[in-house]
Amino acid sequence: MKKNRRKGPTLVMSDNVAEAGLSDATPAQLSTEGDAVASSATGGGGVSIASLPVIASLFLGAATLAWAYWPTWVSLATVWEREPDYSHGWFVIPIALYLLWSTKQSMPAAKIGIHVGGLILVLSLVALRVFGRWAYFDFVDGITLPLTVIGFVWVLFGSAWARWSLPALIFLFFMIPLPFRIENELSRPLQWIATNLSTYTLQLLGRPAIPEGTTILLGDQTLEVERACSGLRIFFGVFALAYATAFLAKRVWWERVILIGAAIPIALIANATRIVLTGLFYEWLDGEKARQLVHDWAGYFMIGVAASLFGLTLLYLRRLVPDGESVDRVALRRA
After folding, report:
1. CB-facing half-sphere around the CA of 165: CA atoms within 13 A
2. pTM for the full model?
3. pLDDT by residue (tens digit) across 59-82?
4. Inter-CA distances, 184 with 135, 228, 249, 276, 280, Å
5. Residue closest to 143 by CA, chosen among 182, 183, 180, 172
6. Of 176, 302, 189, nearest to 238 (Cα)?
């Protein structure tokens, strides 16, 4: 008795058979099947279904943060507009977003949900902000703003996402003005250093400069090194530039520390150069309007000078300690 056998292919619902069938498929077939699976997972569109909760959570967190800190945002914008030392605050958020985008290759998977650690941090910051309002510590609002952003990221996406975004989100602290007492205590020694360093430089240039407190007697001229000329503005700009460069540079940790530490002497040199140039132009030019114009434009020009000095420092560090990629290239050329 003959058994009837089907000569066509038999469909068997078995994972082993499916894997065996895929192993025999050609690369073109695998690519086609992979595209079909990806298309079905995305719903035929360009945004995956898994990313929709991420986008919704981002919008929800941003809306909540904007509503809760709206008076703080208005106060910060007023300071950025009126205070020259903090005019860089307008650029902090775009730069922080760029720093996040530059590290998107190492972005971990987001775990959407309510994470207890981040929730505890946010609630603690809410309590700290309430205490600051009660005790009339207005600066607490500004300080808690970047910390609350970090807390929201932790709450919505988990600790892995918080650790990944932390270096970029720390950059947000550069947009927060310092408390008046700390700013005042920093300005005094900076004024003294700027006065004496500028006086010694003018003396080396052959000018009759004599320091008296925060005043430079320059022949018949009197050059006042005021609080606005202490160099705090240049310090903020150079430190922000140093942090961003250390973040983006592919260097070891101690080289990044050197890059950030180099901001201190560079800021001092740039500010002293500004005062020296202002003193020289005060001797050469007549008229109060011309002198005021030189004083204002020298401040903007010194930011570029500080950036150039920092670029030279980075170039010297790269020549002194080449990175692994450069060493590999040299080895390949020699081979």
Report:
1. 25
2. 0.70
3. 787 788 888 899 899 999 998 888
4. 21, 11, 33, 23, 28
5. 172
6. 302
